[in-house]
Amino acid sequence: MKHNIIIVDDHKMFLDGVLSILRNEIDYNILLAASNGKQIIKYLDINKEEKVDLIITDISMPEMDGIALNKLLKERNRSIKTLVVSMHSDPDKIDTLIEHNVDGYVPKNAEKEELLKAIKTILNGDKYFSREIKDIFIENKLSKKKAQEVKLTQREIDVISLIAQEFTTQEIADQLYLSKHTIESYRKNLIAKLNVRNLAGLTKYALKMKYIEH
């Protein structure tokens, strides 16, 4: 029995590449090739009775990206499997996809054999994540755990938030009614405590902990 597959990617060259790989496989039938998630949802709404086994999607796409598409598909619960094939290796994107029950994730530079292995594994009912993606996911989990273990005082949070918003040492001192020297001490201590190298590292930490908005 053939498996019905939909592919969605806004890079035509990549889309054509995946199509040519799958057309050589007798087990797969390509139902649709689209350039964004909205087209997929529209297709599924029109063809409610059609059996769709797998959707292969990119992350960055206009109108509806792969993260939103995966979330919507899983919420609708039509037992459609999802495989993300993307250039992105952003830990938070990977985290979100896994949280929303994505079935697999391989990088775009993966070999043809790995792509076929991922598809086969997912259609057999298992998850498939390439080693690179697994490593990023685990590393991110560990660094978040470490970050949670580091406890900052409210005053340290005030200082790091203002540093991240690019206030000068003098401006921070004025706002917090402290001396410039005290703020410099806070800054040095924060760099050591959070094990970062510079102010950019402090800013990244403040963003990650959501002390300030993007």
| Strand segment count | 6
Radius of gyration: 23 Å
The class by helix and strand makeup works out as: alpha/beta
Helix/strand order = EHEHEHEHEHEHHHHH
Low-confidence stretches: none
> In whole angstroms, how far apart are the ends?
48 Å
**Beta-strand share of residues:** 5-15%
**Tally of helical runs:** 10
CA-based shape: elongated
Strand order of the largest sheet: 2-1-3-4-5-6
Helix content range: 40-55%
Mean pLDDT: 91
The biggest sheet, with number of strands, parallel, antiparallel or mixed sense and barrel status, is: 6 strands, parallel
Properties at a glance:
214 residues; six-stranded parallel beta sheet; 6 strands; elongated
Short description:
The chain contains 10 helices and 6 strands, in the order βαβαβαβαβαβααααα. The chain is α/β, with parallel strands linked by helices and 214 residues long.
